[in-house]
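Supplementary material to the annual report.
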Amino acid sequence: MTSLSTTPDSASLRAGRSTQRGESVFRRLTMAAGVMVLVLLGAIAVFLIVKALPALEHDKVSFWTTQEWSPETRVFGIAALLFWTVMTSVLALVMALPVGLGVAVYITQYAPRRIATFLGYATDLLAAVPSVVYGLWGLIFLLPHLVGTQMFLSKWFGWIPLFANPNGAADQFSKSAFGAAVILGIMILPIIAAINREVLRQVDPSQKEAALALGATRWEMIRMSVLPPSRPGIISATMLALGRALGETIAVALVIANTPTISAHILTPVGATIASNIAVSFGDADSFGRSALIASGLVLFVLTLAVNLVARYVILRSGTEERSAV
Amino acid sequence: MSTLTSGSLQAEGIKHGSLPKWAIGATVVGAIAVTVVLFALTGFAGRADFLVVAAILSVVAIGIVSWQVEGKRKAVDRVATSGALLALVLTLLPLGFVIGYVIKEGKTRFNGSFLTHSMANVGPLASNGGVYHAIIGTLEQVLIASVISVPLGLLVAVYITEYGGNALATGVRFLIDVMTGIPSIVAGLFVLAFWIIALNQPFTGFAGALALAILELPIVVRTSEEMIRLVPSALREASYALGVPKWKTVLRIVLPTASTGITTGVMLAIARVIGETAPVLLVVGGNNFINNNPFSGAQGSLPLFIFQNALTSSTFNVQRAWAAALTLILVVVVLYVAARLLTRRNALARR
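Predicted assembly:
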């Protein structure tokens, strides 16, 4: 009897030990993967800094205030690139935010369920079109079609410096910061629509029904019950879209003039963003030029990181969670 | 909705009239007519411009007419409704133009010979040549990127969901969110700085795969995490009650249950990175002939092919760019539709 009772005991003990070993191995494996993410992000920052330093040390002018980008003469600065990166992205956001939010409102509050599902797919598909395709389309289709709009803007709103065209020639309108902003706007539109759709969908339906029951029109219901609780989500979606616009490379590289000069006139053929400059200058760059481009990439990395951190912080603080991986 | 308001707000209806259904249609027609006159006077042209101006004028006109007849509240409501619809039109318009134009321009050169030939010994002024080398490059790079990022991403997702709750897991989750926002060109620059400059490696398809893996990882983690969270805890508890240890429960119960959703997520992640040009541009080298080995020698890539051909002004290059764009969009759409069809079969995500 005693001998019988000990055998299963030791067996289960042994089984237990091997299970524990399996458990701890698996746990450590997943933890190692988690730590890998930390290491990876750290490595991105470290290697960008280390490989940017050689160029920054030999820069003959101030990196932050110089507009020119000619590393071959050891003269390069981020001023114009940073200016146009922010400028084109903000303009794109100004154009895309009201429209994207409108689409999200339409899909979640107005459209019948079936149509809403279909429209959701359609906007997601728009987000899935590769940026190089947008760039090609922007270069060959959109730019020629924007000439009329640009002429209209410079003719009637030329008194605003933004739309002024000092040199005046109509055939000037080709590659411009305006074109870049429009293509960026089209590209971030589905992102704004998709994230805001998820945000607006999470509003408590009883709040909406309460507003309608009190006799509110549909718009009053949206303004009172849907938009206020969604505000953190909308702000976060906006920041994420801004981050995407800041880092967009290929589409901008194809439609912008790639001249790093600061100017207030977006219709004239000026402008180059950090990302577009990397794409265009990389081919001819020697090892010093590459180092200089890495320095500019580091600035872009910090800029997008800051924008994304703000977006996540807004979400974290509000306690809501948007579920889109876009 | 409309029957409800017209029925229940009789008192309102007495104070203010309410617009008959045809009035809205008439207003829109009026707005279009005004746009025609406007365009004739200002010499403005372009179908897209016309649509946009007519739509905006319609919204304004509906607001004014409704304000006169139905009062302020109803007018604001109508403007909001038509404004939201206008936003939708403005969003779908570019989608239609992009897809339509890519098909129209792409089909000139899109054929079997285009898909099965490379650009070896094809100059910018020759009308032949194709994307075979670029397709091989893209497929191999994306495959390697997925081989790296999918297992790693799954482990991270399991760590966050199953072993989470501590500061490290919260931090990792936060950083994954931040990683989704890293611009693709920065991922390319990192691989350039780390792999090619610091470790002194050559430009290869594998280097491109590394950059794509960095971009794919956070997407895989986010979608897998979501799917794992959807697995009912009753399934886990039943497994624990049978004496199955946690790690076996994760491997045998949780992951298989979430597998359909995870597959969908991986396919969407692949659809996202397959069109990335910027990281590939910096590290694969890019060439015109077939190189089946991603670990040695420069490789081409489909998005890179489009970019390089778009930059040169030869008609034939631009035609090739469009045909390659059509190829790329087809690949993305197939991946996307397949992922959606899979979602339909996914019992977890449907609930």
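Residues 1-14 of chain B have pLDDT under 50 and may be disordered.
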